[in-house]
Fold each of these.
Amino acid sequence: MALIVQKYGGTSVGTPERIQAVADRVIRWVQQGNQVVVVVSAMSGETNRLVGLINAIDPDGSAREKDVILATGEQVTIGLLAMALEKNGQPARSYTGNQARIITDAAHTKARIRNIDDQAIHADLALGRVVVVAGFQGVDSGGNITTLGRGGSDTTGVALAVALRADECQIYTDVDGVYTTDPRVEPKARHIPRLTLEEMLEMASQGSKVLQIRSVEFAYKYDMPIRVLSSFDEVDNAKSTLVTREEEVMEEVMVRGIAFNRDEAQLTIAGVPDQPGVAFRILGPIAEANIEVDMIVQNIGSDGLTDFTFTVNRGDYRRAQKLLQATADAIGAESCEGNTGIAKVSIVGAGMRSHAGVASRMFSALASVGINIHMISTSEIKVSVVVDEKYLELAVRELHAAFGLGDEGGGA
Ligand code: ADP
Ligand code: ASP
Ligand code: MG
């Protein structure tokens, strides 16, 4: 008997009919002799609706209360799915994050899972029940409701699979796997049957939202394979992507995929005295405010002055700009500017390690369609560039073609 954790995203549970279809699928897995734990998201659009309500009262309001509101979406879905299962004769039991003892830190709206108590769930499974757990939510040690950041139900799914020592973690969504890039932006995107967790980690961290980055981090740390598949396919495993640590069976391609992120903003402080400690003075207050900085570029100084540019999440832009202006005033910088009309495009692939000239090929492809690059950052298995947001889709398609990702037979 295998223990399977299945996670269903918002569109997969978007209507009562879709919830019924999920119940039917879960029952098929049980009838094949498996124990099944199901993690569900809120019905599609619901979390956005809740965010809208929060913003209508106070966008800068208490993060604790935001989580109280945000966590309600998933509570509706667990109840509905448990009812649909029972109506079809399958014993089931719903669990909120608190009831599942998903203990997190206290970082409201972006909490990290610290521990899960698997005993109650195992006891229910032993009684022949399907256990339905609310994704995206947990509880801190003080009993406060927390949420795990947008897309966080993926992380609940993987973390539960690890805690329960499941045989497989299946992430059901509205696409039948991971593609070479978002198929909504490039219809020629190609399905990837197998991918390493390392590559998926890089794709997710560069903006591919098919899996939340933290879910991939969990899977990597605990060596839990993830299978991404569609809840809209009639037959299971018709087509899917298996994301694992093992590399040997994978064809060695230079570029595995193109990731992008619109959620970025750029800040520049110019005419800064070029002295030891200047980076710390500029970025220290930003870090203290818990704002994550992504790319950083410091220009070569001239006449004792230098410029400093960095990117942050667009949601943190206003706060970061205020802090930077205060630093600029304090150190007598010449100017402080920002730009929210930018986006980041990245090429990702473990094969880059052994190939030279990948970056220059990327730059020449972008130049061929007249796209200007504002910033560049590289790691062993990725190259990222910041471009004007209005050119993002063009950049994705151009790079997809330049690295041969749409062709039969794989990347260049
Ligand atoms: P869910 O609600 O099931 O969690 P998401 O919307 O979070 O679904 O994630 C699935 C979406 O991720 C797809 O519809 C697709 O538009 C997007 N996506 C982005 N990058 C990729 C990629 N490389 N491969 C597949 N889907 C991708
Ligand atoms: N409902 C949450 C969101 O929309 C979590 C998730 O779907 O994974 O972000
Ligand atoms: Mg998602």
Note: Residues 3-249 form a domain with the Carbamate kinase fold (CATH 3.40.1160.10).
Amino acid sequence: MKRPILIHPDPRLKKVAAPVADLSDDLRKLGDDMLETMYDAPGIGLAGPQVGVLQRVLVMDCVKDDGPPNPFVMFNPEIIAASDDTNIYEEGCLSIPEQYGEVERPAEVEVRWIDRDGNSREDVFAGLWATCVQHEIDHLDGKLFIDYLSPMKRQMITRKMQKLKRERARA
Ligand code: GNR
Ligand code: NI
């Protein structure tokens, strides 16, 4: 089942999400719903707060269009190591449609998380995967990619989003 994606500005996108306590069928269903919502958008990642769930869950799949899908569902993800070298990507966000900005982040990160079977896992992510998982974990901490841009660019984007939300509310 697809879930509606919240659009910035929304107070729920600024909150720190709570750790997941125990894996339940509801949480597994949430992961499935988030993957369906992400693929449908389409996007390469999605975090709980973006669908109004203030729990530490994210999904991602950064495989190129022609590759086989490689979906991840992560509960309580944590960055346990980050490289000194960085990458700059032009980032976008499903909660900030059609707005983009360059963000510099560590090029490689090691992440620990609980998978949908309840097992603890660790892996190193690089390239777009590294950028994506950091963007998603930021969502769990109430942070958006526009928080890395200049105040002027951020304000410009926020005003555009306020206008978009007004228009959608009237339609
Ligand atoms: O679909 C998405 N694309 C993207 C591109 C560059 C850097 C990060 C992303 S994540 C984004 C989906 C999203 O908003 N996830 O929170
Ligand atoms: Ni996002």
Note: Residues 151-170 form the longest helix (20 residues).
Amino acid sequence: MAKITFITSDSQTITLEGFSGSVMALAVENGIKGIDGDCGGVCSCATCHVHVAPEDMEKTGNASQIESDMLELDDNVDKYSRLSCQLQISESLDGVILRVAK
Ligand code: FES
């Protein structure tokens, strides 16, 4: 189990508990504003873009090459960007804070 906190673009802070699957799926199931998951999690839409809190980057690790290539198409990309469909829920993500990208 991992507790994952989302901060939406309208500054709502929502903490969810996840057990398996992707962070994107958890967010969509719980109606997190700004995470749409349009491609279903196959790394081809970037509607699941989040900025990881800098201190939590070691929990998420860095984006893969294919993920980075997709993120580069988004104007709001920064060095803390990840596609949440590529983050699998596990104990190692517990406590992570994710700001939903604009
Ligand atoms: Fe499409 Fe993540 S859901 S890239």
Note: Residues 24, 37-39, 41, 43-48, 83, 85 surround FE2/S2 (inorganic) cluster (CB under 6 Å).
Amino acid sequence: MEFSFLTFAAMPDFEKYEAVIGLEVHTQLLTKSKLFCGDSTQFGNPPNTNISAISLAHPGTLPVMNEKAIELAVKLGLAFNCDIVRDNYFARKNYFYPDLPKGYQVTQHTTPICKNGTIPIKVNGKERKVQLNRIHLEEDAGKSIHDADENYTCIDLNRAGVPLLEIVSEPDLFSSEEAFAYVTEIRKMVRHLEVCDGNMEEGSMRCDANVSVRLKGEKKLGTKVEVKNLNSIRNVKKAIDYEIERLIGLLEKGEEVLQQTRSFDANNGTTFSMRSKEEANDYRYFPEPDLAPFSITEEQIETILLSMPELPEQLEARLKLEFSLSDEAAKVIADDRETTSFFESVIQNTEHHKAVANWIIGPLRSYLNENNLDIVRFTVKPKTMARLVNIVEEGQVSFGIAASRIFPELIQAPNKDPLDIANELNLIQEKNNDALHLWIDEVFASMPDKVQEYKKGKKNLTGLFAGEVKKKSRGKADMQAVIKIINQKLNQ
Ligand code: ADP
Ligand code: MG
């Protein structure tokens, strides 16, 4: 939680409370067509062009199930260790809304396709598994557009009937940081499995946050509020922080928390009430009569399992085992598909696999972070990167020089050969003993008192001498050789 401690320093009771959060995350599936008809799901097409009589809910039309949506749902369920429900049917959730032409939404009410399961998160170095309640399939509604016309609200039904997976957690998150990590993990996984593009700004991934607070040690959950319209992971965190502070404020004043649906205002980071429980709908759920129940077989699950890419956790373990990478290196490289595939391409061209990993988590990651770039925008080819790694490992240039001088130059001229750059900039490591002896003698001559101190026993002055040689050589001296020669000369 991000509290302003200055403001709340006078409220010692703040620590008495615990926040409890449950999230409902909607992800739009990457199917080409809608959940119950062949209309395109393409985002950004002109309004009301992805619509047939079925999306428009004309009387007499019948839905047909999109099998790809089932496959994607099972994939995500397996990745999160859910139980896959074998016998499924859809239900009608009845309510009136202008952008819902049928007057009901088709959703899985009693038989969510996936049950239970967990999502691992890591916050402040501590790993924990967040308990899931369910993942179910449902269709999206259309979109009301309030700002296109001065006098009317416009309706775009392109989105009506697009398949969604709703991922519902148990009330098992206890801070906004945990919620942030949880949504981040979901986005990573849906992208990894190509279940959803995870783009919250375009609305293909949306999150509602349920928040309550209770006294620490209390078993019973407090009354929750549900915050809608969270269109970025950052806003999920902001809205939760705001609500926790607001709810504790109410309890501290002795006021009752009302069960409400609230909306987040991204402009000022606050929330406002949309409706309270008294106004809640009675959805009159009943089984959808126009769609046959469907079953998921053992063979189907087997086939889906075989088609799944290696999961980040498995990949991480393999990287550590196969290439002896550190925990950190394995995590960074397994973190997203692009980084993994860059690593895999570079190691095709060099034997120094661990060094490649160190370049990726070191200089390459710093460069990308500083310039706010994605690895897909990195222009140095894997083969060239391997060359750079090789000339360091072969001792032609030092790692420091390669990272600080050659690497930036290579980014400017990605088609150049790293060794050519090293030659042009005169950076090849000096291994020639004559040159090294000369520099070392010059250094000794410039600090005779230090040489005396060394001879009297202050052996740790080696580092000082070596540093001076490094300066003289402008970083080109082979440091291992330098240290050896210094010690030899002074111990003669
Ligand atoms: P509703 O019927 O109001 O949609 P659900 O029981 O289906 O409520 O839960 C919706 C979401 O709210 C779930 O993610 C659940 O974990 C979460 N939730 C339920 N009760 C609480 C609570 N008291 N505090 C925080 N989150 C809660
Ligand atoms: Mg709800």
Note: The mean pLDDT is 92.
